[in-house]
Design brief:
Jelly Rolls; 4 helices; 6% helix; mainly beta
């Protein structure tokens, strides 16, 4: 399930469902990855990042291990007022700028709400998360399983990289044989080529551009970049990291929504019966369950900061019901095009403040795995994802492609 969460500085954690993959034999950048070194319940190199409570226990244990003589354990039966991810954390000793890093671990759970291991890249202030990756989320009862994240390209402005082995909510989890390895080292311009288990992600920028142009119903006249984008989550109301390559729209647990804005288009961009404006977004991973509702695109009614949360998300234009655009959820990875011409021609607030993407029905469950959604490349995407940034496309179509839009 797409399930990120963060509490800045103290308990910053990202939770998202990403595909597991094989780990490599490259150098492990973590120290004491199996908690073999330590004194009693305290492992060397690992720190507790937790909110103290009766019912919470975090220790180095020898009772349940995957390999060697120890593992990291978190057990909690305390119910906090808001989602808390108690975690073991370690800062990497070196920051390989431009490298593509993958985090992996062996995880075992017992009646766990949510457990995972994530990698976070932070700027020099420690306030701004620049990139992250996570293993798949483990829930309930699970014997030892090896899981790994997709690769994460380390941005040039990264000052520190933190690894977190976390339990969100209640239950018990054990972590062993953790590792962080470089899929590819940094190249000369300090940006590594992207690597992914998704075949379309490994295509060249040229192939991505060709795919996009083939989907257009006419001649590309103008390309307009997205200037702001962020994701907000109903079940993590404080999540407000708009600067990372992580946006999505999904229908689980109250909803995952994406906000996008651009520099206002001049009126001439939509003038003429054959001019169309498309919002183009790239789904690097699509999860498709049965009976997903339509996706609703609504004009935003006020200015909003890129670091926006569910609690602070902007209001939709009061006239949105008449201006909303509804599109079918489309299974499969790749480019998704949304014709927003009617919204712009009616002079809605979208051209000034942008749009929100959400599912019409946001009532599916991450725990039941019956949800649908797109994990999208954001405007901060690095490496080959640079060619998959969200954008507006002004297209000149043939008259027969214009449709029957009412003027």
């Amino acid at each position: 399930m797409f399930h990120p969460t963060a509490t800045a500085r103290v308990l910053a954690l990202v939770v998202a469902a990403l595909a597991a993959s094989q780990t490599t034999c490259a150098e492990n950048l973590l120290l004491n990855p199996g908690a073999e070194q330590g004194k009693g319940e305290n492992p060397s190199m690992w720190e507790r990042a937790s909110v103290a409570a009766d019912g919470l226990k975090m220790e180095r244990t020898s009772e349940i291990v995957k390999g060697g003589k120890a593992s990291l354990m978190i057990a909690n039966d305390h119910k906090y007022d808001k989602p808390i991810a108690n975690n073991w954390m370690q800062s990497l000793q070196k920051v390989p700028h431009g490298a593509a890093l993958r985090v992996a671990a062996a995880i075992r759970t017992r009646d766990a709400d949510s457990a995972n291991v994530c990698l976070q890249c932070w700027d020099v202030t420690g306030e701004k998360m620049l990139a992250f990756g996570t293993t798949p989320v483990i829930r309930g009862d699970q014997d030892w399983i090896r899981v790994a994240s997709d690769p994460v390209i380390v941005p040039a402005a990264t000052a520190s990289i933190i690894i977190r082995a976390a339990l969100l909510g209640t239950g018990t989890v054990w972590f062993d044989d953790l590792e962080v390895t470089a899929e590819r080292q940094a190249n000369g311009d300090n940006q590594a080529a992207d690597v992914s288990a998704d075949n379309s992600e490994s295509d060249s920028p040229k192939a991505s551009e060709s795919e996009l142009l083939k989907k257009l119903p006419g001649k590309l006249i103008e390309r307009v970049p997205i200037t702001k984008d962020c994701m907000v989550l109903a079940y993590l109301k404080d999540w407000s990291h708009g600067e990372v390559d992580n946006i999505a729209v999904a229908n689980n647990d109250g909803g995952v929504r994406t906000l996008l804005a651009w520099k206002p288009l001049p009126a001439k961009s939509t003038e003429g019966p054959n001019r169309r404006v498309y919002l183009a977004v790239y789904s690097r991973k699509t999860t498709a369950a049965k009976d997903a509702s339509e996706i609703v695109v609504s004009p935003i009614g006020k200015k909003w900061p890129e670091a926006t949360s569910w609690e602070t998300q902007p209001k939709i234009d009061p006239a949105a019901d008449a201006l909303n655009i509804k599109v079918k959820f489309e299974p499969g990875n790749g480019w998704k095009l949304i014709d927003i011409t009617p919204m712009l021609r009616k002079k809605s607030s979208a051209n000034q403040y942008g749009v929100m993407l959400k599912f019409k029905d946001e009532n599916q469950s991450g725990a039941k795995q019956d949800w649908s959604g797109y994990e999208l490349v954001s405007r901060e995407g690095l490496g080959e994802r640079r060619s998959r940034h969200p954008q507006l496309l002004v297209v000149e179509t043939a008259p027969k492609d214009n449709g029957n839009e009412k003027k």
